[in-house]
């Protein structure tokens, strides 16, 4: 679970920082669409949320057998599954397809599966 949490931390923190700094570029890479007006601060709020997930994942990696770490992993199943569906639907239904869209869909799907398999493993006793 340690590798999963650290990889999650790096991916989400990097994406979050990108959305905070240059949300228009991240959206263009994912959806080949432009954003303006209210969608820019909304993208930045999403970036802060992803950065927070990244920080929480990094800190949980130091105590991966705790209930809190397993709770975080459970939340990441929901997040990754939701992101997979939303991004795939955007690509299929609306035709918004940027260069990073399908790799992001595959990454989120893989992370969903990895999180689920990690949660299904019995926790090892501490000590």
Could you characterize what this model shows?
- With 127 residues, the chain is mainly α.
- It has helices spanning 2-21, 23-31, 39-60, 67-94, 101-120.
- The protein is 78% helix and 0% strand.
- It is globular, with a radius of gyration of 16 Å.
How would you sum up this structure in a few lines?
The chain is mainly α and 127 residues long.
Describe this protein with a few key phrases:
mainly alpha; globular
Q: What topology emerges from the helices and strands here?
A:
Elements: H1 2-21, H2 23-31, H3 39-60, H4 67-94, H5 101-120
Helix pairs in contact: 1-2, 1-3, 4-5
**Strand residue content:** under 5%
Structural class: mainly alpha
* Number of helices in the DSSP assignment: 5
Largest sheet: none
- Quaternary structure state of the chains depicted: single chain
Would you list the SSEs in sequence order as H and E? Answer: HHHHH
Low-confidence stretches: none
Mean pLDDT metric: 94
Q: Approximately how much helix is present in the residues?
A: over 70%
Give the overall shape, derived from the CA principal axes. Answer: globular
DSSP summary, beta strand count = 0
* Separation of the first and last Cα atoms: 17 Å
Whole-angstrom Rg: 16 Å
């Amino acid at each position: 679970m340690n590798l999963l949490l650290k990889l999650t931390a790096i991916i989400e923190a990097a994406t979050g920082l990108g959305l905070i700094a240059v949300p228009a570029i991240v959206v263009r890479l994912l959806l080949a669409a432009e954003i303006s007006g209210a969608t820019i601060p909304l993208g930045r709020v999403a970036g802060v949320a992803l950065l927070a997930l990244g920080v929480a994942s990094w800190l949980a990696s130091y105590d991966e057998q705790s209930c809190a770490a397993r709770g975080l992993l459970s939340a990441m199943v929901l997040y990754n599954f939701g992101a997979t569906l939303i991004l795939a639907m955007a690509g299929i239904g609306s035709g918004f397809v940027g260069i990073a869209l399908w790799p992001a869909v595959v990454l989120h799907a893989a992370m969903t599966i990895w999180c689920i398999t990690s949660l299904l493993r019995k926790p090892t006793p501490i000590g």
